[in-house]
Amino acid sequence: MKIKYLLLFGLASIGLQAEAQVLPYKNSQLPIEDRVQDLLGRMTVEEKVGQLSKLLGWEMYEKDGKSVRASKKFKDAVKQQHIGLLWATLRADPWTQKTLDNGLSPKEAARATNALQKFMLDSTRLGIPLILSEEAPHGHMAIGATVFPTAIGQASTWNPALIQQMASTIARETSAVGGKNGYGPVLDLARDPRWSRTEETYGEDPYLIGQMGEAMVSGFQGEKIGGTDNIIATLKHFVAYAVPEGGHNGGSVSVGERALLHYYLPPFEKAVRAGAGSVMTAYNSIDGIPCSSNAWLLNDILRKQWGFSGFVVSDLLSISGLNGGHATAETAVDAAQQSIQAGLDVDLSGSGYNNNLLAAVKKGFVDQQTLDRAVSRVLHMKFSLGLFEQPYVDEKAVEKKVGTAANKDLARQVAREAIVLLKNEKSTLPLSKSLKSIAVIGPNADNIYNQLGDYTAPQPEEKVQTVLEGVRALVSKSTRVDYVKGCAIRDTTAADIDAAVAAATGADVTIVVLGGSSARDFKTSYQATGAANVESGANTVSDMESGEGFDRATLDLLGNQMTLLKRLYATGKPIVLVTIMGRPLNLNWAAEHIPAIVNAWYPGQEGGLAIADVLFGDYNPAGRLPISVAKAVGQLPIHYNHTKPTHHDYVEFDAKPLYAFGYGLSYTQFDYSDLRVELAENADDFACTVRLNVKNVGERDGEEVVQLYVVDQVSSVVTPVKQLKKFIRQPIKKGESQEVSFVLRKDDLKLWGLDRQWKTEKGKFKLLVGPASDDIKLTEDIILSKTYPL
C-alpha cells in the first residue's frame, strides 16, 4: 500500500512539474500579447518568414478510397518553408482539378484538415497550427456545402439581417470542416459591368455595399473572434479593383483621392470597424502605386485611421506582380521588401516572400522589427481563434452542420428575396398553377452550373434545383410541362430553335430562361491566379461569359439567344423572360416586347424553386437592383450617384438607364404619404429624424424597400447628384399602413473638404424618399445652421 501511495504521489509530482513547465505561449491563461511575444522570441528567422507564407492547399492532402492524409508535398513545404497558412485546401473546381470523385466530402474534409493540423503540432519544433483560409463568398467553395446566391443577388435582397444569417450559416459550414478564415465579403464598387467579376460585388452604391459587408463580417465572426462555429472574414479587394480601364480584370484604374475617400473606401471602413480579421490587397495600382506596396493605404488609412488590427494578405501572386506586370520592383527580393515595408503581412502563393523575404532580411533590406510586426499579426490571430487549444474539428458533427435541410431552406429564402421583378405588363404574373401546358425553354432553364456563379464547387445533379424542376414542382399534376433547350449561351453550332418554337406554339405560356454563365469547365485553361483564359471567337463552346477573367466588350445576350427570344415572341403566345446572369446585360428589346421579365442573377442551388415561387405567386417579389442596367455600353459608367452636373442626353437616346438603381416591382402597390422631418442641432452633432407612412393599397401582402436619398444642394467640393443614405425592407399586409423612420447624423452627410478634413457643411440638403433612385415620392429640405467637423 505504501508503494502504491508513493507511486501515486510521484506521478502527481511529475504532473505538477509538467504543468509548471508549460511554455508561456502554450498557456491559455496568459494575455495573447504575452503569448505572441514569447513565441516570437523562440522562432528563427526562417520560421518567422514561413509564418507569412500561405500556400495553395488542394495538393496538401492525399486521398485513397476513404483514407485521407497529409501529402508529401505538404510535409516538404512545412519542413522547408515552415509555412503558417494554407489557402483553398478544400476547394474543388476545374482549376484545381478536384471533382466529386477525387475531391473531399465534408467528412473527408474534416479528416484532411485534422491530419494537416496534427502534423503541424506533432512534427514541427514549435507546434504552431495552421490558419486554413477558404473561399466563402456565397457558400463554402467545397463539395457538400450549401450554395447561396452570388453577392450581386445578396445585395438585391436589400436585407442585411438576412445576409448576416446567411453568413453565419456559411461560417458554421466552413468551420465544421476546419476552415477558420473565409474569403469574403467582396466590397468592390462595381461601376463597369464589362468587368468579369461584377457578380461578386454588392453593386454600385457605397452605402449599400457597406451595409452588406458589415452584415457578412458580423455573420462570419460572431460577437468575438474565436467563437464556436465562426471564422474570420477577409475583405476584398483593397481597393478600387472593380473599375479597371476598359473593363480589363486586374487592369489600371483612374481614381482620385477624393473619389477613393468618398466612394471606394467607406465600405471597407464599415467592415473594418465591424471587426474584420483580414484584408486582401487588390491587383491594381492607385495613382501609380500598386495596392500591394501602398503604405498610404495599408498603414495610414487601414491601420492608423481605422484602427485595423488584423493581418493583410496579398491577392494570389500580387507581390510577384511588382517585379512582373507593374514593373515597380527590379527583382523579386525588392518586391518582397516593398510589400512588407508597406504593411502587407501574408503572401498568398508562398513564392512572393519565402526565399525573397529571407534574403531581404539577411541582407539588411528589411529589419527585424518589420518582420516581427507582420509575424505577430498572424500569430495574434491564431491565438484569438483558439487554434492552439482547439486545432482539430469534430468529424462526427460535420453532418449536423454542413448541407442541412435548414441551410437549404435558407438558401431558398435568400434566392427568393433576391429576385427582382423588372416588368409585369397587364399582370402577366403570377401564373396560374393549373394551366394546361407550359413550355420551359432556354439555355439556363435546366443547367445546374449556369445558375450557381463563379467560385462554386462541383455539385451532384440532384442537389441543385433548376427552373424546369421548380416549375414542375409547383404546377398541378394535370399541367403538361415541355422543355426544349433551344440554344446555348455562346455556342452557335448546336441550336434547336425550331423545336423550341414548336413547344411554345402548343403551350398556354412560355417561360424562357436566358442570360449568362460563370460555369467553369474542364476544357478551359486557367492562369496561375485562377482567372480563366478567354478564347474569343465564334467557335468556342463554353457557356462561360462571366466570372473571373471573362471581361466583355459588349453587354448583349450572346450566341443565338436573341434569335430564340424573337422567334418565340413571333408565336404570339404569352412569354415570361427569366434572366439568370452575373452582370446586367442588354435587355432593351425584351423590355419593349416581352410582357413579364424576372431577374434572378445567379440564384444558387435552390434558385429554380425560388424562381418558381415568384412565377406562380407563392412569393411576392421585393428585390431591388443594386446596380443600374444600361441601355448600351456607350452609356458606361451609368451609376445613379455620379457627381454633378446632371448628365445630358446622347444623339441616339437619352442618358437614363433602362432600369435604375433601387428599381424593382411587386405584385401589390404601395402609397407614400405624410413625410415629417424634425431637425435637432446641438454643439457636436445633429439628429434629423425622417418619418413617413407607407400603405399597401394592392390585393396582396408584400414588402416595400423604402429608400432615403440626399442631395447636398451647395457644397465646397463636387458631390453626387443624389446619394443613398438609409433604407429598410418593410413587410406590409394588404390594406395596412406602416410608419417608417430614419435618423440622419453628421457622419451621414460628411464630405472631404478643400482643407482635406472630414466635415458636414452647413447649408441646404434635399431629402428624397421613394421605392427607387428614379422614383421619388416625397421630398423635403433641411438647412444646417453650422458646419460639423468629424
TrEMBL record:
GO terms for molecular function: hydrolase activity. Keywords: Glycosidase, Hydrolase, Signal. Transmembrane segments: none annotated. Residues 1-20 form the signal peptide. It holds the Pfam family Glyco_hydro_3. It comes from the Bacteria. SMART domains: Fn3_like. InterPro entries: Cellulose_Degrad_GH3, Fn3-like, GH, Glyco_hydro_3_AS, Glyco_hydro_3_C, Glyco_hydro_3_C_sf, Glyco_hydro_3_N, Glyco_hydro_3_N_sf. Residues 704-773 form the Fibronectin type III-like domain. Belongs to the glycosyl hydrolase 3 family. This is Glycoside hydrolase family 3 N-terminal domain-containing protein.
